[in-house]
From TrEMBL:
It holds the Pfam family 2OG-FeII_Oxy. It comes from Parrya nudicaulis. Coiled coil: none annotated. This is Leucoanthocyanidin dioxygenase. Residues 1-79 form the Non-haem dioxygenase N-terminal domain. Keywords: Dioxygenase, Iron, Metal-binding, Oxidoreductase. The keyword Transferase does not apply. One of its GO terms (molecular function) is metal ion binding. Residues 131-187 form the Isopenicillin N synthase-like Fe(2+) 2OG dioxygenase domain. The keyword Oxidoreductase applies.
Amino acid sequence: LINHGIPVDLMERVRKSGEEFFGLAVEEKEKYANDQAAGKIQGYGSKLANNACGQLEWEDYFFHLVYPEDKRDLSIWPKTPTDYIEATSEYAKCLRLLSTKVFKALSIGLGLEPDRLEKEVGGLQELLLQMKINYYPKCPQHELALGVEAHTDVSALTFILHNMVPGLQLFYEGKWVTAKCVPDSIVM
């Protein structure tokens, strides 16, 4: 998506905050660790495991609910970098507005009432926006590693704020195609 209405400087602040978070010492990141076994999926995590094809998934991530504001748990949001909470909160508001525009366009394109799809996924009150920041640490044996294995997102819409590093692939017409990196765009 281009001309999406999200300020480029805000997108850069979000990228920079994520980059700075993953640059912290492991002990600092662990303060925000999730606990999958206890059902606490929000927070910092690491996926360094073999997938079904025998390759290593090689990924650190930070996952959390960002919208609506009254359902967020700010206690698990990083305090460092200092701009993380403000930049992410502002970005979430912009994504919420973008979601409405996309749902409206899709609804009209399907011959439905303009607000139909958004209502179907919870409307203004119940639609949840979750954010996952992926970080791929340098792997000493890169030929054995894969960032994230092939998957289907379970969300109604997925917006990807990329960092101009190619790697995202889509399964299209029976083959894997690398997504184009377009400056200041969001992949949807």
